[in-house]
Design brief:
By secondary structure, this protein is an alpha+beta fold. It contains 1 helix and 9 strands; from the N terminus they run H-E-E-E-E-E-E-E-E-E. Strands 1-2-3-4-5-7-8-9 form an 8-stranded antiparallel beta barrel.
């Protein structure tokens, strides 16, 4: 009986790993195709950073409070036409949530490396509307209650698929801009629990494009 349980556990782990890799490869293939299609277009490289206000939504009527964090990373802005652009990014994102139980507060600290690929519509006055998929990789997950810190990474899935919607503005002569977006998690981040939980949050920040044109 123990042998069959071990076989089932191993099989379940392989299935989970396959699902993670499948999502990763699908995203990678799409990114490569997009890159090949726009490789002849001029691209600007930039840096970005800002504030996160994140929460975790649960389908069992358990409400958490929002938690502040920060984001910092790199971006590439690629013009497809006068009004359309593609903006892939990679950045660190501090996410999570917090809640109180019996008067004691617990903070769920989740650290992700997020890779959004945003399609932008650019107005002539510097404003932009943007939307696109985002793939997140969990690199750290801990729950802190008082002075006690517990590692909860094994309880969460490594990959998080989401949708990013937002707007921005760039001052063209300087290359400086501001960005605001809403990130909606589409996949369940729980690994073992029957409760479906998704990341959701607002991201505010500034960015700078080198040699903007």
């Amino acid at each position: 009986m123990t042998f069959f349980l071990l076989k089932y556990t191993c099989f379940k782990k392989y299935i989970t790993l396959f699902n993670i890799m499948k999502q990763y490869y699908i995203f990678a293939i799409v990114a490569i195709m997009l890159t090949l299609n726009v490789s002849a277009q001029p691209a600007n490289i930039g840096i970005k950073g800002g504030l996160n206000i994140y929460n975790i939504n649960n389908n069992n009527n358990t409400d958490y409070d929002s938690k502040a964090g920060f984001n910092i990373g790199l971006l590439s802005h690629i013009h497809l036409s006068k009004q359309l652009a593609l903006q892939p990014e990679i950045f660190y994102s501090g996410q999570g949530a917090k809640f109180k139980s019996g008067g004691t507060e617990t903070k769920i600290n989740l650290d992700y490396i997020n890779i959004p690929v945003l399609f932008q519509y650019m107005f002539d006055n510097g404003f932009r509307l943007q939307v696109g998929p985002q793939l997140g990789f969990l690199v750290n997950a801990k729950a802190k209650t008082g002075n006690v810190m517990v590692d909860i990474k094994d309880n969460l899935k490594t990959v998080d698929l989401g949708l990013s919607i937002g707007a921005g503005y760039i001052h063209a002569p300087s290359g400086f801009g501001v960005d605001a977006r809403y990130n909606l998690g589409l996949s369940n981040i729980n690994e073992n629990s029957s409760v479906k939980s998704t990341n959701v949050g607002f991201q505010l920040g500034v960015f700078y494009l080198f040699k903007h044109r």
